[in-house]
Amino acid sequence: QKQQERRQQRAQQQELLPAEILGKHPLQNRWALWFFKNDKSKMWQANLRLVTKFSTVEDFWALYSHIQLASKLAAGCDYSLFKDGIEPMWEDSQNKRGGRWLITLAKQQRHTELDRFWLETLLCLIGEMFGEYSDEVCGAVINIRTKGDKIAIWTREAENQEGVTHIGRVYKEHLGLSQKVAIGYQAHADTATKSSSLAKTKFVV
Question: Which spans are transmembrane here (predicted)?
């Protein structure tokens, strides 16, 4: 029992140590991973749960290697990665004036490109790949759906055309999409009142 207590003390001490001392590489932001499983008998928020938070490169990879790949999730499930303090819903005060760059995938892409696109999206977020506009990014969501999966990067301010279009261009480049493929940005205010297929596209890159 004493040995167990000593182990617990060591673990607690490690948690108190700065990441640098442990040889870890701190990220600029602390991030939270959320999981949503659609159970129609429950309220939407009851289906959403926080998986964990992380703030180092190593803790991100430890998490990524332990969770189910997006392509293996059941239809109706979502993963969301958001900056700590922002909830993955458009009603959150930091999301409600914003919108999302939306990637819609064909059914067959689930087994060819979905996991790569999602990982690239996560790396864009935690690596702050959007330069001076990285602060505009709130998080990203992947929706696994029978009709076709969706990945979106959520930004803070839909009216910030310069920031939003910069993020869209960089994102498209990191996904390796050809110039012929166009991706669209929708304001949450529009998708809140209509389905995403009917909501008007505000910007295209």
Answer: none
A 10 A CB-CB count for 34 gives: 19
Per residue in 83-103, pLDDT tens?
999 999 999 999 999 999 999
Nearest residue to 103 via CA among 146, 140, 74 = 140
Instruction: Classify burial at 42, counting beta carbons within 10 Å of its beta carbon; exposed 0-12, middle 13-18, buried 19 or more.
Output: exposed
For 16-50, the DSSP string reads HS-TTTTT--EEEEEEEEEEEE--TTS-GGGGEEE
- DSSP string over 104-131: E--GGGGGTTHHHHHHHHHHHHHTTTTG
C-alpha distance from residue 22 to each of 6, 9, 26, 176 (Å): 19, 16, 11, 35
Q: Quote the pTM value.
A: 0.86
